[in-house]
Amino acid sequence: MMTYKDQSKSVEERVQHLLSLMTTEEKVGQLTQPFGWQTYTNDQGNITLNDSFKQQVENGGIGSLYGALRADPWTGVTLENGLSAREGAEAVNLIQRYAIEHSRLGIPILIGEECSHGHMAIDGTVYPVPLLLGSTWNVDLYQEMCRAVARETRAQGGAVTYSPVLDVVRDPRWGRTEECFGEDPFLIGELAVASVEGLQGESLDRGDTVAATLKHFVGYGSSEGGRNAGPVHMGWRELLEVDLYPFRKAVEAGAASIMPAYNEIDGTPCTVNTELLEDVLRKDWGFDGLVITDCGAINMLASGHDVAADGMEASVQAIEAGIDMEMSGEMFGQYLVQAVAEGKLDVKILDQAVSRVLALKFRLGLFEQPYVDADQAAEVIGSEAHVQLARQLAAEGVVLLKNEADTLPLSIANVGRIAVIGPNADQAYNQLGDYTSPQPKSKVATVLDGIRIKLANRVLEHTNEVADRHGMHEKDDRPAGYGDNHAAKNLASDLERDSSEVLYAPGCRIKGDSKEGFERAIEVASQADTVIMVVGGSSARDFGEGTIDLKTGASNVSDNSWNDMECGEGIDRMTLGLAGVQLELIQEIHKLGKKLVVVYINGRPITEPWVDEHADAILEAWYPGQEGGHAIADILFGDVNPSGKLTISIPKHVGQLPIYYNGKRSRGKRYLEEDLEPRYPFGYGLSYTTFEYSEPKLSDASMTVSDSVTVSVNVTNTGRYAGAEVVQMYISDVVSSLTRPAKELKGFAKVNLEPGETQTVEFRIGAEQLQYIGRDLKPVVEPGQFHIHIGSSVNDTQMAELTVREA
């Protein structure tokens, strides 16, 4: 047996043997990653490989494919021409079989997929976006989601995912805010570890795990003006302390891959930043995995950043800086063979990159098991367990921002007639986030769906209660003689009538200045007792679904579909207000004097002071995924007590930006027009119940710089409802050699409490919680006074004092 095919040999031995057999063309082939959806044609279930793919395999091979299963308007893959769960697995098997059987060395292909909030393939479960996932503050639940995403992706043959996104958001005008967990590096770091452990499991070759790719390395969320891929102005201290922190935690957890960001830092594009890719990542952190570019990043070096004269120079710069694989593969595939032949690239550098690609393939077990079970894919992908997980995550991440006079929860018994109004009330794609595949309407529960089903189910429960009393039930739990029995007839009529009590009108679109739907929306709202306005944003690309008739609310499919996208990759904004005429619609509805509940569905914070002042209740639901409508209905009617907390500060005015909570104490106090306090601070979120905190108690009032102490606090549910509270610990370094933030999150715990129940929550405080990056760019714990703050948000805490002594 050839050494590289011998599973008993070490990964290093197998890599070196295989490398020794390869030609330059075969080596370069391993560093390229063409677009996977272009490799095949699907003709009504008959999947065939394209000639261009076959030629590439036979002329040196392909190392990886990007998005072989991806479906969206960019790829042109639709529900009609795309692959089902089973077909996707069969297609990947076809691709792998051809690559193995028609290449000289039989090297399997690395299939890389997007999984920001679920595998971006047809039939995959669509989870909430990371901004909502962060708002759950539930690390264990998020890790469970990552395991589910890995199972679905690997079941179809996907072996690498381009997630998690670990960017620290500094300006929420940035369109990719929705893809991030928030503005705090500690919280992101905890979720980063959970992501790596959930996706990669105990071993990459298990068959239900995938390699995690950390992105975007680094500073991507701190771009100038919130403009995508814009320059980043940041010193090394801040870079090490803030933006690099989550990446370091994920690398320590064993992340297999990393993706440099598009942006530059202090003049050097991350794609060719050797200080980052070699000195920090590999030497300081000991990372030995794969480094892959973002799509088109090498092209940008010669056309955008302009640090390379042409494609040849850009390609050589990138691989010499530490890039191992190029997403899209255009530049490496075109220039690297020539670069080696002309002596512009040392073959040792090429071999180093190839060895990292091969090592990952061996670790994933692709040589032993390149194929997947199509039956299992059909069973796992979109399973009921995963759907329920999506609903739970959405419910835990929705944030209650306002609840005047206990407007929520609504009582089904006396809520009366409900009007659900707004452009996001019944638009499925508007609640799914940017990285979303085409969806059948039946798969996504909108807010209108959720409310109607919620009320209908309550009537059915009442139906069954009466049926039980009259002995009318058969095995299928429906009243016997349904349709002719007098009581059953009346109850069926009640069900139909109560469902019709939920009225709907879109009112307007997300963007645009058309008010043609206002009259109908006002008419509908005037008939209701409670109005639920579902407004916000959209990251939905043009799926060819047409638009909504603003007068009737019906789908209006035509050749001229309307794209409401105002968030997502490449969609940055100058303001944070509601787009279009949405605010005017809310104001017109408010004039009716009805109880007004506003539900925001969006991918970045919304700054609307009028809504904050006039709405009776406000829910921030971000993009809650396919089960979002059910989760929101659960919260509106009290079946779920909201427990989400903000992971990003919401300003009063866009002019306050940047407003992240952990800015330096030296940043000032106010503007002429307004102070620097946000409308809703980091960590904020209301509940239907109330929680009371005791004073924090330290196990010792002092410690040495090398020691640790424990801080504890008692949290009591003092309200009428069971609920979950996110207990947050912040630390302040009272006097430091270098300027520091006023508070920094260093611990949190989500606890569930019944009414009257008390739990003691403890946090350990040691060097990791107290240190910062010193003048020598190394972590340091300085002796002195520290304030330990514990509470329900950054602005609602109680304090204990800790003295740190020299060792």
From TrEMBL:
Keywords: Glycosidase, Hydrolase. Its EC number is 3.2.1.21. GO terms for molecular function: beta-glucosidase activity. Residues 725-794 form the Fibronectin type III-like domain. The keyword Hydrolase applies. PANTHER family: BETA-XYLOSIDASE, PERIPLASMIC BETA-GLUCOSIDASE-RELATED. InterPro entries: Cellulose_Degrad_GH3, Fn3-like, GH, Glyco_hydro_3_C, Glyco_hydro_3_C_sf, Glyco_hydro_3_N, Glyco_hydro_3_N_sf, Ig-like_fold. This is Beta-glucosidase. It is an enzyme of class 3 (hydrolase). Pfam families: Fn3-like (PF14310), Glyco_hydro_3 (PF00933), Glyco_hydro_3_C (PF01915). It comes from the Bacteria.
